[in-house]
Amino acid sequence: MTYSLAHALRLQSDPPVSRLERLMLLEMLLGKPREYLLAHDDEPLSEQQFERYTRFLGLRSQGHPMAYLVGKREFFRLSFTVNQEVLIPRPETEWLVHAAIRLLPRHGAAIDLGTGSGAIAIALAHHRPDARLMACDINPKALALASRNAQHLLGSGQQIRFQRSDWWESIPLESLALVLSNPPYLSMDDPHLKLGDLRFEPRLALSDEGNGLGAMQIIIEGFVKRAAMGLIEDPGLLLIEHGYQQAEAIRALGERQGLYHVYSASDLAGHPRVCCLAMRAPKPEVLDQLKDACLTWSSGTA
Ligand code: GLN
User: Which among 60, 115, 165, 198 is most buried, taking Cβ atoms within 10 Å?
Assistant: First the structure.
């Protein structure tokens, strides 16, 4: 028995999978663009292709994230390879990159703590080839994926230094102008962990297995310690993405360590999403750059 593409596209599942997602699965499995698949929908699938397709359709029907099934997700207009070792990059994280592109001085140094797929560091490197970038993760498999993404997405001119590290632990004592992070910020009993894509993403990337502020605290303390060693140079900002109800808590954590709250950026749903902290009050142009990042981000331009 042979099945055509048209048949495969019509194949139902329970719970249902949208036609667009069925098309995306076929694109990935057959290595052909959707325009081709739609124009040649009378072509037969081999038995093996059909069997793989029904397996993937079943996985999607059970809730497996599309990004893991097709093995990629777009972030900042770049196509990142992703797998179950890393968090699926989210659009709300793009603001952090917009801000970093504007704030980093020429040839300035920045670090992405907990880089996962490499999304933040690589998108920044793509727009700022002059930047000196480090990216770390505790999971060596995530780091391997991030460095593969960097090889594919960046020219040979830009090199990000990938370092295995538990937050600051193994980071060389070098000057940094910007510290960026989208750390695991869900509390261990956050109900979102049982919903949608999050059920399939690595716990390590989602939750600190505490009240959700554990990683934030370590990152803030490390930032303050490095600043005391003279290792944080202008504009000397820490940009952390956080949960939609954590803005006040992060600000308080920072202020307790003597940091200055510079800015809170909201996501497109209007929730405060990124906290910007510094050792001292910023120059007015820093605030202008942050506001400009918000404008370009919400208007969808890079
Ligand atoms: N920095 C990566 C991202 O924003 C990974 C974040 C994480 O795993 N918490 O996608």
Answer: 115
